[in-house]
Specification:
19 helices, Rossmann fold, 2 domains, 6-stranded mixed β-sheet, about 35% helix, about 525 residues
């Protein structure tokens, strides 16, 4: 080898790859090399092959994952540390200490040294448990993601491959993880796939941009790419600094001021409190009151709370995981549920679907909540992990499955299914197995499958994670349209921009309690 080859950490030449059953190649002659110690950020729209490329460069494909691929030459690291998009696919053991001990065993670390190292790596990512031990299954997805990063750090790898490692973390957790990576990996090679770029722009030496077809269309220093290639980033729907402000300006120009809507609401009997509640964010796109309010009568169901909770508790076994003293959700609300990882946000949504055992007062549109099966007729629910929802073998079947058992004819089901696939950018993937999708595509499929039945209440757990900018804004626009038509939306999110620009009210969950929920009187 010459000096240049020795300085390479990973490389691939003339890469071709395809998924079984697919006609098109994922990559068509892609060539790429990364130098030792270089920090590289891979950007591209959802489905462009970023995660697949990461797995090829780390050696997982084709060693562990059998996907047909060819290349003229490839160099992968002897010790690669990989953090997947979905942390559940990464764990080998049942408890936190066992998971890290498993890694240390493979490094031949003496047993007596393991407890201190286990505690060290857990603290590196902000996790602390009694005797460093807790059941992984009981952890939130965000906490699992931190554990996956801790396990990867325990490998002491030559090259770090990070596939959206902070997608499910709150702001504090995101900063903590990236601060840790920056501190311990200054001399290591890092290749990152990430949509949340603000925390890492100053860290990366180089940005590589993939087109929707999986071709490299830009490659250079961060500032150069964000400045010179802005048009491409915008065209492909890729996140870049300032995109929210650009979206806001475009929405203002399209929609104009919302002040007229507020006056219309007041004129038609909606209280000024409600009008002010929604107009408090009216200087940002997406914030307005339900536009169909003028068609409502005093006896309309929209004047009843969509959800009414009093002294409500969700239980896991004999342990209360989420407690709500009093809260109401109205049709036309967009509730943003915020709080730290593990605070109980997902448990709240699971309780609202009676997937967890519940006690206390809980009514849906003025009626007792009933069992999960009965709630599913009135409430659409999207799990945090989209794979929890998949039950069929193709994308199209997955959406159509939600319509089975109703009054629609076969033709009507197919028309509505195709409509949803088009709306969520999945029509070209209709015959692919759901598990073969990228994480962003899986998330869109889970949302499409939930919305296709057109229920008037939506419970969404991190519906935008793993999405590129184009699909995020398209999803938010669709949800906002539904809200304006009277749909009630209750959504867990860590994205402050969404909370600021779209949510009409905010619920804060803190240590298993809904500690801050505005209770609005019936208009």
């Amino acid at each position: 080898m010459n000096g240049e080859e020795n300085s390479q950490a990973v490389s691939v030449t003339n890469l071709r790859c395809k998924f079984p059953g697919e006609k098109a190649l994922v990559f068509q002659g892609l060539s790429l090399s990364v130098r030792q110690g270089e920090k590289v950020l891979l950007l591209g729209p959802s489905g462009s092959g970023k995660s697949t490329l990461l797995q090829i460069l780390s050696g997982l494909i084709p060693r562990s994952v059998e996907i047909p691929m060819k290349c003229d030459d490839i160099q992968v690291p002897a010790k690669a540390g990989v953090v997947f998009q979905d942390p559940d696919t990464q764990f080998c053991m049942s408890f936190t200490d066992e998971e890290i001990a498993f890694v240390l065993e493979n490094r031949n670390i003496p047993r007596e040294e393991m407890p201190a190292l286990i505690e060290y790596y857990l603290k590196q990512v902000g996790l602390s448990f009694e005797q460093n031990r807790v059941l992984i299954q009981s952890m939130s997805q965000g906490m699992k993601q931190r554990l996956a990063i801790a396990s990867m750090l325990a490998m002491d790898p030559e090259v770090l491959f990070l596939d959206e490692p902070t997608a499910l973390l709150d702001d504090e957790g995101t900063s903590q993880v990236w601060d840790t990576v920056k501190r311990i990996a200054s001399d290591k090679t890092i290749i990152i796939v990430e949509h949340k770029i603000n925390e890492i722009v100053d860290m990366v030496d180089r940005i590589i941009v993939l087109s929707p077809e999986g071709k490299i269309v830009a490659d250079g220093p961060a500032q150069q790419v964000f400045t010179d290639e802005r048009g491409k980033l915008k065209a492909y729907g890729i996140w870049y600094p300032g995109i929210w402000e650009e979206q806001e300006q475009a929405a203002r120009q399209e929609e104009g001021s919302a002040s007229g809507e507020i006056q219309v609401c007041v004129d038609h009997g909606i209280s000024s409190l409600e009008a002010q509640r929604s107009s408090g964010l009216s200087d940002t796109p997406g914030i307005s009151l339900i536009s169909h309010v003028s068609s409502l009568s005093p006896l309309s169901p929209a004047y009843q709370p969509a959800l009414d909770l009093q002294q409500f508790t969700g239980w896991r076994g004999k342990t209360p995981f989420i407690q709500v003293e009093q809260a109401k959700v109205w049709h036309g609300d967009w509730i943003g549920i915020v709080g730290a990882n593990g605070a109980g946000k997902s448990s709240l949504l699971l309780s609202l679907m009676n997937i967890l055992k519940t006690t206390g007062h809980y009514e849906v549109e003025g009626q007792p909540s009933g069992k999960t099966e009965q709630l599913a007729d009135r409430i659409a629910f999207v799990f945090q992990n989209p794979e929890f929802q998949f039950v069929t073998n193709t994308v199209a079947e997955e959406v159509e499955f939600s319509l089975l058992g109703g009054r629609l004819t076969t033709e009507e089901r197919l028309v509505r299914t195709d409509h949803m696939l088009n709306q969520f950018g999945l029509i070209d993937l209709s015959e692919r197995h759901p598990y073969q999708l990228s994480m962003g595509q899986k998330r869109r499929l889970s949302v499409a499958s939930a919305l296709v039945r057109e229920q008037r209440i939506l419970l969404l757990d991190e519906p935008t994670f793993g999405q590129d900018a184009r699909n995020t804004f398209a999803m938010l626009a669709q949800l906002e349209q539904l809200r304006r038509e009277g749909t009630a939306i209750v959504m867990v999110t860590h994205d402050r921009e969404i909370v600021k620009r779209y949510c009409t009210r905010i619920w804060t969950v803190d240590e298993g309690r809904l500690s801050d929920a505005t209770v609005v009187s019936s208009p």
